[in-house]
Amino acid sequence: MSFVSRKGLTLFDYVNYTLLALISLICVFPFIYVFSVSFTDPQVYVPLEFYLFPEKWSLSAYKYILSTNSFINALKSTTFITVVGTILNLIVSFSLAYALTKKTMPGRGAMLGCVIFTLVFSAGIVPNYILVKELGLLNSYWALIWPALTNAWSLIVIKSFLESLPPELEESAKIDGSSDLGVFLRIVIPLSLPAIAAFTLFFAVSHWNTYFNALIYISDSKKWTLQVLVKSLVIDSDATGISGSSGDDRMVPQETIRMASIMLAMAPILVIYPFLQKHFAKGVMLGSVKG
């Protein structure tokens, strides 16, 4: 007979919650270590020693990172790609998905078939690289934006969500003389704000974490994205690849510089997510049910 507490929790629930708590701690510990090392004062930092909390707090690593030209350039590049890419993603994805909901649109079936085909099959790295090269986009930020304007999964989910909207609203707007564009901008977009918030987060995180495409399409170190720069700092043996305007790198340990760069790369998403979390959850649920 299983033990049942006053709150209705069984022995299995206690064991399950305990295991989940342990797994959560295992996942959180690396972040705590990165956070602690990044804020540890260089004078008390000891290599290969685990820091749960800094013995002495300091912003030296962050001051050095933020004074470097390499990090500032990478931050500007990533911010541009994220902001412009996310806006274009939303425009293309929602407008194309809205068009695919119209059964009277010429070529709708063929276009929808192409979308589903790309969901199953991919051209691969070499054809994509050749395409980007022939378009003259190498060493350009647009090499990371144009090829990723939308994707099949996003189109299908957005299309499903738009089809769940009451068709009577569009019919009423058209009776009042509104055009298809007017219906889309004045009726569909306001009703799609939860989905827009959800996909804004999806697209923004994807662009902010751009690594592989930036690695193969951009060879100019001045145009590196933040993730490529962080990889260079964390994995490459020479952490002095980040150049700055100050000479404090002799005083700041390389490990604290690495950890500070990781924290700065994660910070924007961690700050933005809580504000979009409510709309994110609502948008995902709305797109999963039709009717």
Key descriptive features of the protein:
12 helices, MetI-like fold, mainly alpha, disordered C terminus, 291 residues, globular, single chain
Notes on the protein architecture:
With 291 residues, the chain is mainly α. The protein has one domain: MetI-like fold. Helices cover 64% and strands 0% of the residues. The protein contains twelve helices and no strands. The chain has helices at 11-38, 60-66, 69-100, 108-120, 125-134, 152-163, 167-175, 180-191, 193-208, 212-217, 226-234, 254-286. Helix 1 packs across helix 12 (254-286), helix 7 packs antiparallel against helix 8 (180-191) and helix 9 packs antiparallel against helix 12.
Using only C-alpha atoms, the radius of gyration works out to 24 Å
Number of separate strands = 0
- H/E series, N to C? HHHHHHHHHHHH
Gap between N and C termini, in Å? Answer: 44 Å
Given as residue ranges, the uncertain stretches (5+ residues, pLDDT < 50) are 1-5, 237-241, 243-249, 287-291
Blueprint (SSEs and pairs):
Blueprint: H1 11-38, H2 60-66, H3 69-100, H4 108-120, H5 125-134, H6 152-163, H7 167-175, H8 180-191, H9 193-208, H10 212-217, H11 226-234, H12 254-286
Helix pairs in contact: 1-12, 2-12, 3-6, 3-9, 4-6, 7-8, 9-12, 11-12
Membrane topology: Multi-pass membrane protein
Family: Belongs to the binding-protein-dependent transport system permease family.
Subcellular location: Cell membrane
